[in-house]
Known about the structure:
Elements: E1 3-7, H1 25-38, H2 42-48, H3 51-54, H4 57-77, E2 85-88, H5 92-99, H6 105-122, E3 128-134, H7 138-151, E4 157-164, E5 167-173, H8 174-186, E6 191-194, H9 207-217, E7 228-230, H10 241-251, E8 256-257, H11 258-267, E9 272-275, H12 281-289, E10 294-297, H13 301-311
Parallel strand pairs: 1-2, 1-9, 2-7, 4-8, 9-10
Antiparallel strand pairs: 3-5, 3-6, 4-5
Helix pairs in contact: 1-4, 4-5, 4-6, 6-9, 7-8, 9-10
Amino acid sequence: MKFAFVFPGQGSQSVGMMNGYxxxxxxxxxxxxxxxxxxxxxxxxVNKGPVEDLNLTIHTQPIMLTAGVAVYRAWKELGGxxxxxxxxxxxxxxxxxxxxxxxxxAEALAVVRFRAxxxxxxxxxGTGGMAAILGLDDTIIQNICNDxxxxxxxxxxEPANFNSPGQVVIAGHKHAVLQGIExxxxxxxxxxxxxxxxxPSHCSLMQPATEKMQHYLEQIPFQSPKAAILHNADVKxxxxxxxxxxxxxxxxxKPVRWVDTxxxxxxxxxxxxxECGPGKVLAGLNKRIDSNLQHLSLSDxxxxxxxxxxxxxxx
Length: 315
């Protein structure tokens, strides 16, 4: 059996999300390590909230990175094997970088907090937005975005996440996103809803953030990956450090090609796709992309043990 690990990103967070791992000390230890590095009590935040603090981008991104790394460490500590491939949804790509030993955990924490700050500063509060469009072909959604961008020359709208067949997230100026919702409904969308996110990720409005990230990443030491990572922006794996840094910068303004990611894993002989982190958001998307693959979520300690029993322990 050939398996891949995929790491969730922003949107999978919830108060109490680590409760299912209470019997694994390495989980809390990893959160305490992150808290010491960034001087923020993340363990209290994920256990007690308030949810408003947990959902602040500057907190969410380090917390979801920490959650994914903690569960991956638990997997390894309990004897789990090294995955053949790694991938992460948006922010989750940084967790994949830690799992592949491309980035140290401490460096990754600093990078994602800087990333969150840069993204927040790129677009004034209330200017941007994102919406999920359900039940339309990708081509129709691309045409909707093109039509609105052409009609409103001072605003833009782009596909941001190709999450699963019939589920695409659009991003851009808030007024353009609202227009996109109405146009999608008129063209047959089953649902078109605004998402509770003020930052229009993975679109051209993040260009100011790319410039800051480029300068910042130049100072961060990377190592060549010890496991293949499929990157969001081009759905390819890279060994060259300069290329990896470039693709991480592009990720901010390019759509997350999640459908292509899961299909590429299948085309490379992967039989099992394992969501490594709290929740089951990615597992739900992955099943809709390719039902022939086996999909698991390491959503609690029992699930980790069951997956190790199924896939075999490391030799």
